[in-house]
Write a structure and sequence with these properties.
The structure holds two protein chains of two kinds.
Chain A lengths: L16 H21 L3 H24 L8 H37 L13
Helix pairs in contact in A: 1-2, 2-3
Chain B lengths: L2 H22 L3 H21 L3 H25 L15 H21 L17 H8 L4 H23 L3
Helix pairs in contact in B: 1-2, 2-3
Chain lengths: 122, 167
């Protein structure tokens, strides 16, 4: 399907896959730490975005370094990139709705603090 | 240490600086600006991985649109860090740190350590252009694409509802 396209020179052949995955892991871990320790819900949202981007980075790394067991490497790379596009779209929708909810809570209570948001506690 | 590896290390250090800033800056505005740094450098790393189209999308969608939304909300909340109260739940930081380190160690040992020397099979990297993305997105993935567009429409309507409604 893609064979009519012009091949691009590969520019990163000497960087191991593990480096990209390590960066992705560190970003995911920092995002998770931020979700657990921060109290401002907007910053918690930013940390969730950080985790989503870490996952995107690992998708694209695995897409760019095909394993020998997959069939067509270009097809495998396309699947990884499609996942990244869908994650981006869902993240955008999630941010719009989540920030709307935070604004609604702020208008009602005049403060934002995830430790104080316990109205739904049984 | 080749030139590509040095380039990756520089970009990775910048991305990590941004990520650390998001978590540890007290002021939400500084956290948001660190996140802009992180997203921008991540877009450059996508270029390095051969995904030009997604690198441009990353810079436009994340570093542009989503971060503007975040900054708007941060400024509407008037929370500029000076009102940030000290931590009330003792031990939360410690628990978070231990949990994160456990996740990191497990994932590193189980998934990442076997790939530390893997530089990949050689193949023609033609997957990152807008043309190839569009070809696959509108043929093979057209049904998920339509579902995503409905999800975005629902998100738009829902956030307008949340913004207009009087509680």
């Amino acid at each position: 399907m893609l064979s009519h396209l012009i091949p691009l020179a590969s520019v990163f052949d000497d960087v191991p896959l593990g480096w990209f995955l390590t960066l992705s892991l560190l970003m995911f871990t920092l995002g998770g730490l931020g979700v657990m320790i921060r109290r401002n819900p907007v910053v918690v949202f930013m940390c969730i975005e950080l985790m989503l981007n870490a996952v995107n980075l690992s998708f694209l790394s695995f897409a760019a370094y095909p394993s020998p067991v997959v069939g067509d490497p270009n097809q495998a790379a396309m699947s990884g990139q499609m996942m990244v596009i869908f994650v981006m779209a869902i993240a955008a929708a999630e941010v719009a709705v989540g920030l709307g909810i935070i604004m609604a809570i702020f208008r009602q209570k005049n403060e934002v603090d995830v430790d104080e948001m316990s109205t739904l506690r049984g | 240490m080749t030139l590509n590896q040095i380039a990756f290390l520089v970009m990775g250090a910048a991305a990590l600086f941004g990520a650390v800033g998001v978590v540890f800056f007290r002021s939400p505005v500084r956290a948001a600006l660190s996140l802009v740094i992180n997203f921008f450098v991540l877009g450059l790393i996508y270029f390095m991985l051969g995904s030009q189209m997604l690198g441009i999308s990353q810079i436009m969608v994340y570093a542009g649109a989503i971060m503007v939304l975040f900054l708007f909300v941060v400024m509407m909340l008037r929370d500029d860090g000076k009102t940030d109260k000290p931590q009330t739940q003792e031990g939360k930081f410690l628990v978070g740190l231990v949990a994160s380190l456990a996740i990191a160690a497990l994932t590193y040992v189980a998934v990442i350590s076997p790939t530390m020397n893997y530089t990949g099979e050689k193949f023609n990297r033609i997957y990152g252009t807008p043309q190839s993305i569009g070809t696959v997105l509108f043929t093979q993935y057209v049904w998920p694409f339509e579902v995503i567009s409905i999800l975005l429409l629902v998100g738009i309507v829902g956030s307008i509802m949340l913004a207009k409604r009087k509680f």
